[in-house]
Write a structure and sequence with these properties.
This protein has about 240 residues and is of the alpha/beta class. The chain is about 30% helix and about 20% strand. It has 7 helices and 7 strands; from the N terminus they run E-H-E-H-H-E-E-H-E-H-E-E-H-H.
Length: about 240
């Protein structure tokens, strides 16, 4: 088992799972899944129709005591009925990806991926226990490095504490999945990739608020350049 993750007593939340083989790999190494909450964006029916091993992976996870959730949007998960009262030691999203809607270098695609990761960080940062960590495994070559995970995390009060090379052989049985379109059940070449680990940081919260305020102060006011009488009426 890789040093990147995990001690058994940690409460783990996995989001954006494909065929749930990563959650299962962790569970089998622990010999139990009672500390694992594993989730997918897709519904159960979609998951088992997309991935040929998903049904048996899910059955084993359940037998080992995992909590399994489907239809969990990582960008809204903090208000999910089964998650909103819970805090975790590790929140893990392996190879987040918003889908194949264009070439990976396309600026709109990069924007979509960044928006997914940003939404994930915004939610995850409020769902951590003390000393909890958010782990994102991600490719580190272009164009993926231009997503700039560290900046997205920082905007959401998370500071990078470590970045370690991701080795798939550390997770026996894990099959990384494309997750979308007709080749969803195929794996994609990992190439150079790492697990980025973040912790909640009050100081990054303050700094990013200061940067935002400065940016706003430098902007020309739009809303208050109406004639005086209009403004006065609007104030009533
Ligand atoms: C490249 S696949 C990786 C799948 C899996 N994590 C793995 O490593 O095999 C990207 C995953 O991100 C998921 N995803 C995309 N948008 C999401 C969202 N808003 N919330 C949760 N998962 C999302 C997809 O459903 C897909 O499973």
């Amino acid at each position: 088992m890789g040093e990147t993750l995990l001690i058994n007593p940690h409460q783990l939340l996995l989001v954006g799972e494909g065929d749930f083989s990563f959650s299962l790999s962790l569970a089998l190494s622990f010999g139990s899944a009672t500390n694992i909450c594993a989730s997918s964006l897709d519904s159960y029916v979609t998951v088992i129709s997309k991935y040929k091993k998903a049904k048996s992976n899910l059955e084993t996870l359940e037998r080992l005591g995992a909590c399994i959730l489907h239809g969990v949007d990582a960008t809204k998960m903090k208000v999910h009925p089964h998650l909103r009262m819970r805090k975790f030691d590790r929140i893990i999203f392996n190879f987040p990806h918003a889908g194949f809607h264009g070439k990976e270098h396309n600026v709109l695609m990069i924007k979509m991926h960044r928006s997914l990761v940003q939404g994930f960080f915004r939610n995850a940062s409020g769902m951590l226990r003390a000393s909890g960590e958010v782990h994102v495994s991600h490719k580190t070559t272009g164009p993926f490095c231009s997503w700039n995970l560290e900046e997205l995390a920082y905007r959401n009060s998370l500071s990078l504490i470590e970045c370690v090379g991701f080795k798939i052989e550390d997770y026996p049985g894990y099959n990384n999945k494309r997750g979308d379109a007709w080749r969803c059940d195929e794996s994609f070449p990992l190439g150079e990739c790492s697990t980025f680990k973040f912790r909640f940081s009050q100081s990054s919260k303050k700094k990013s608020r200061r940067t935002r305020n400065k940016r706003n102060a430098n902007r020309r006011p739009h809303r208050f350049n109406k004639p005086r009488e209009t403004l006065a009426r609007a104030e009533i």
